[in-house]
Amino acid sequence: MSGFDSNPFAGPVDVNPFQDASVTEATSRAGETIGDFNPFSATGTGMGNYSGTTIPISGAPSQPAVLQTSVEQSAKATAAAAQADLIKQQEELERKAAELDRKEQELKNRDASRVPNSGAKENNWPPLPKFFPVNPCFYQDFEEEIPDDFRGICKRIYYLWMFHSATLFLNVLACLAYFTADSQNGVDFGLSILWFILFTPVSFICWYRPVYKAFRSDSSFSFFFFFFVFFFQVAVYIIQSVGIPKWGNSGWISSISMIGTNLAVAVVMMVVAGFFTVNAVLAIILLKMVHAKYRNTGASFTKAQQEFSQGVLTNRTFQNTAASAASSAAQGAFGRNQGN
User: Fold this and answer.
1) pTM above 0.70, yes or no
2) Where are the alpha helices (DSSP H) in the chain?
3) What is the pLDDT of residues 151-177, one digit of tens each?
4) How many CA atoms lie within 13 A of 182 on its CB side?
């Protein structure tokens, strides 16, 4: 009944839990054990007579970390799929590009069938009207194609050709008057028509266009061709200005012979003879000027030979002709061998 005799309203009694006998004994043992424990001793005692047996480390060599096979295969599969997708896209782009090229070529062919020579410059010489049945045959533009240093002399040669053509036309009229004054001079009138029809286009093609090409592209071959042909043209001018009878030219000899017969006809023929003389003088002057320009361009006979060789060898007609000739010769030789 002692528990019931205690006063519950009395002040609390200070109780020290460490004064308990069991707690005191345990703390004293722990202090002794910690003091005698040596962690580096193989047989030392401590922590309740703990045996110092060491735990052996695994003797197996360390291995590097290796990805699992499933992760590696997944990465390879992803890269292969991406590469296949890129190849597919590239093939699709190439197919579309080929389709666009085909359509573009079809449009070009269609335009070429509608407009002849659509890829080249449109010919503008001679300047014929649109309704004329004959189209221009050449392209000519001094400002675009001829350099500034050669433009002036090239135009002068063009003006010489125009003066040459006008002189030939006037020669026809003078020879007509010569024929009307004396019916025995019909040969001169007929030949004058032939010279006008023949020499007008031939002179344009044989000496004007070569010098135009020479100044346009600095071609040695065109320069030499011009010099060769134009030298003979100067000689023809001199012959025409002389006016040998029965040669179809209203020159000085023919015109002087008509003074006593018909003065008016003689005057007309003298004017034409003067035009032929002017043609000869201008041709000599321009020939010297072109030769001076030619010396400054660096052209030479060796370059002319090279240009001629390259032009002949690359010419499609020449190649076809040479191939046909070689084939015919081979067939002939084969036939002769079989006959023998």
Assistant:
1) no
2) 2-5, 21-36, 69-114, 142-145, 148-181, 186-203, 209-217, 220-242, 252-257, 263-297, 301-313, 316-339
3) 999 999 999 999 999 999 999 999 999
4) 20
